[in-house]
Fold these 4 entries.
Entry 1:
Amino acid sequence: MPTARCMKCRTQVEIKDPEEVILKNGLKSLKGVCPNCGTKVSRILGKASEEEIKAKQAEQESEEKEAA
Ligand SMILES: [Zn+2]
């Protein structure tokens, strides 16, 4: 299980419901919630490749269209 630092628990926790996201600055990060307190936690995985950024952008755009 991936872990991240929870600001509220002030400790390393397992990421619950982890979801990979590409940040605007081109970094890949894992977003989820702390299993102890429910606070949102995230962890930077590293730089996303150009293909990953493009794939994610296309995916997010189609999701936005579906939601609208
Ligand atoms: Zn926590």
Entry 2:
Amino acid sequence: MWTGRCHCGSIRYELSLPNLYLTLCHCEDCRRSGGGPYQGWIFVPRKYFHLLAGELKVHRYEGRERSFCSDCGSPVTFAESAFPDLVEVSAGTLDEAAKLVPRDNGWMQDHLPWVPVDAALPQFLHTAPTPCLD
Ligand SMILES: [Zn+2]
Ligand SMILES: [Zn+2]
């Protein structure tokens, strides 16, 4: 069981699965919406994501949606209409984020040259393939 929250604490959630798959996304959309040079996402089958407190503000575009805390702006989730059973959770909002281990780097096409990348991890030019989680 994993827990997480936004910066101000209005949003709290729980992920009811033992092992988390962390991908690092270097796409421009993640950069602009998250404000960092890249963004860590955890692939979570939707049934394991439980919102415990707060209401997410959802931004929809091009078949995708990103959710944020409407009070502090922390990015919380990302989802695509092509994968309705999957939600990606912003790795930085996890309480035990230090325990996560990145598995791959996605959207290297948009990678910023000054961001170091672990050469031992797989790299994908576009979206990292969704792992089998169940
Ligand atoms: Zn907040
Ligand atoms: Zn991205």
Entry 3:
Amino acid sequence: MTDPIAIKLGLLFEAVDADHDGTIHWADYQRLFDRLAVGYKTDTAERRLQALQATYQMYWCELLRHADSTSPLLTKEEFVAVNRMASMDISRFNVVEGIPSAMFDVIVPDDSNILGMEELSRLLKLLEVTSPEIAGRIPELGNDGCVTREDCVRSAREFFYTPNVIAPGGVFFGMV
Ligand SMILES: [Ca+2]
């Protein structure tokens, strides 16, 4: 039986590999970040965007460190393996909680701790999310239509650590 976490990470690979060259390179993450930077530049503190980019860079460094090769590229098989390792290793940086939290700072600029429906639809549009599972399930994360930072982090944990194949938290890592 195929491992559900490996299936999810394989789908994440396909989504992040936006140029479809069969490998993931920093440029694939830069592309993801650039989409967000265009959408949020005008109304979010520049520092938060810088912090988000730095967080993605740390994530990328951790993936390469776990790959333990001299190549600056990750194949699908490597990407799946090193994401598992990076998600377990919090010795430098907690990838699973750090990425959604840095993204939350950008997408909810008013410090309300609530991801409103308007902010959510804006995020999904900028990320070009087409999956109805993701688009439909994020609002269900919270209670009474209120999705908090904690809900987002919890969903990212479900994406990496549980067999739930429709956990929408992968969206913070580029799942569309
Ligand atoms: Ca690529």
Entry 4:
Amino acid sequence: MSVRFVVVTDTHYHPTALRDWGAPKMLTRSREVLAASVPAINAVEADFIIHGGDLVCGGGSFDLSTIDYELSIQDVAAEYAKLRAPIHYVPGNHDSDAQTGSFERLFETFPIPRLLDVVDVAPGVRLALANIYHAAPLIGRWSDELDQALRRADAAAREDHCALLLVLHEWILPNLVRPGDDDDVGCIEGASVLRDTLIDCTSVVATFSGHRHVNRLRLWRDIVLVDTACLIGHPLGFREIVLEEDGFLQSHFHVLDCPDLLEASRYRSSREANERYEGEELDRNGVLLAPRLQRIWAWRQRQS
Ligand SMILES: [Fe+2]
Ligand SMILES: [Fe+2]
């Protein structure tokens, strides 16, 4: 048995952008990216799709009016209705109405978790979809409520011998920590609490985040951490993930077939910055043993 899925994040659709905003984003070409992404994702023939948040450009940075926010949501929903595999979402910090901080229109249109939703997506595989903005619209926080909900989901998954994939918008593990920085710079508030919880929650085999628009694939302790770059600029792609029967997790990074758009995005940043967004080869196209997955699926195979 193997399970194949797509991870796409930080698509940042903006229907009326007059400029591209911060690199690598190419917001003036949002429509083109949205239109190109759906057939590219469908071509993977995945069992399911995960969206890591920042579907649109609300939340405070992009001068998005309420009318354009609502239009954004309608456009994205209409295009994603053409996806052939079920898609599961978590909210990002740019998914609220910039005027009110409300996510209500998003909740009305997409199946967005209020706190933590658990969804069976394949035999022996469940998603734990976390809303890290449930208490404050713009601050991603691993709250006590989320912590307790994940612990309950883990207890149920262990009982059922299922693997849990935790999906949340912001990073769990820091990367560049400079002298004077907080140890968890760039991470979700409460990252150290979440990491302790992940150590305890042994059904969580992998986590999936976006937000920082950087590709990274790491085995941290016995958990695979997958951070994925944006789909609105360089490196302009999404991941295909395969969970293999023997417990390996394989990533293949697909780049949208929009070469001039990719080139225009790349032109906006230094080579070093672009290399940071895209990550190393193994951050895009790596294969890692997922030890917890291997243990859970070995047990299931012995029972079948
Ligand atoms: Fe983003
Ligand atoms: Fe974000």
